[in-house]
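Shall we go through a protein fold together, starting from nothing but its sequence? Please make up or recall a protein chain and show it to me in full. Go ahead whenever you are ready, and we will take it from there.
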Amino acid sequence: MRIRAAVLTQSGAARPYTDTRPLSVEEVELRAPGPGEVLVRIGAAGLCHSDLSVVDGSRPRPLPMVLGHEAAGVVEAIGPGVAEVVPGDQVVFSFVPTCGRCGSCLSGRPALCEPGARANLAGTLLTGGRRLARADGGLLNHHLGVSAFADHAVVVEGSVVKVDRAIPPERAALFGCAVLTGVGAIVNTAAAEPGSSAVIFGLGGVGLSAVMGARLAGCHPIVAVDLLAAKLDLALDLGATDAIRADDAGALDAIRAITGGGGQTVVEAAGNASVLAQAYAATRRGGLTVSTGLPDPAQELRIQAISLVVEERTLKGSFMGSAIPRRDVPRFMALAEAGRLPVERLISGTLALEEINAGFDDLAAGTVVRQMVRF
C-alpha cells in the first residue's frame, strides 16, 4: 500500500531545519504484514529527543530511515500467528521489540531484549525484514522497530501493547516512551520509597514524567532542575516541591540544603554527560543516581571512583524505565485515568506531518515538551 512518511536521508543537517529540511514527506510503499507482524494505522506520534538525536547525527543509524517511535494507533490487519491483537484494537508502540525467548526477556527485563537491540541497530524489524520502500524499490530502514512518522506502520507483535480504545491517541502515545521511561525510572529502576527525596535533572517529556513518578511514589522533597523557567514552573505544577535553575552557581548547594545532603534518588534526563556528573554530585551518601538520557556516544563520564565505595553510591542506567511494557503501560494508563498521572500536561501542541521539521526546531530549542504529529 502507498503511505505518506517522513524520511531522513542524511543526518547532521544544520539548523534551522525549516531551511535545510532533513526530513522529507514522501509517498512510499508499505508492504503487507508477514508472519507475526501487525499493520497499524497511526493516530498520533510524538517528537522525542531520541528522534532528534538521529536527525542531528549524535546517534548514528542506518539511513535512509523513517523516524518516529512514540506513537499509538489502531490495528488494521494482522499476519499469520498473531495472537495478542485483532483489527480494531488500539495499541501503543514499544520501542524495543521483544522476542520473549532471550535471556533478558526470560529474566523479566524485556527492555534489554538482545535480538530486539540487534534489530534496532540494523534498522530492521525483529523478523529481520524491512517493510518500507521508496518508489524506485530502494528499501527504507525502520526506527526502533516502529517508524511512526507515517500514516501506517508494519511492526512485529512484540512491538505493540493493546490499550483502551477510548483513550485519545495523542495521550496514549505518551505511554510508549516519555511516561514509560520517566515514571519507570522512579518506580521500577529506583524503586523509590515514600518520604525519600528525589531530584530530577532535565525537564523534557521524560524528566517531567519522572517528576510525576516521584509524586506518585510519595517522594518528598522533589527537586526539579532545568535551564528554562517555563519548564520549572510546569514541574512545580506536576508535583515538584522545589525548582532550581541548572546554571545557578549555587545550584548544588541549594539542592543539598533542600534534601539534607543530596537526593536519595537523582534522575538525569538531559542526555548529557556533564549533566549526569552534576546529578551524581547532587546525590547523597548511599544514594542512587539514575541515568535515563541518551548522550552522544563520544561523551564520557568522569566521577571520583572512590566515592562508589566509601560513600556506597550507586550509579545505574535505566532504559525504557526498566519496564515490562505489557505490564506497565496499562497500569500507568490506569493511574492517569484515575488522575494520579496528569500526562496530558506534557502535550505542547499538535502538528501536521508536513510541519515536522519546524517541530524539531522547537524541540532542539527546548521551548516545547511533547509535540504530537496528529494523523
The mean pLDDT is 97. DSSP finds 13 helices and 18 strands in the chain.
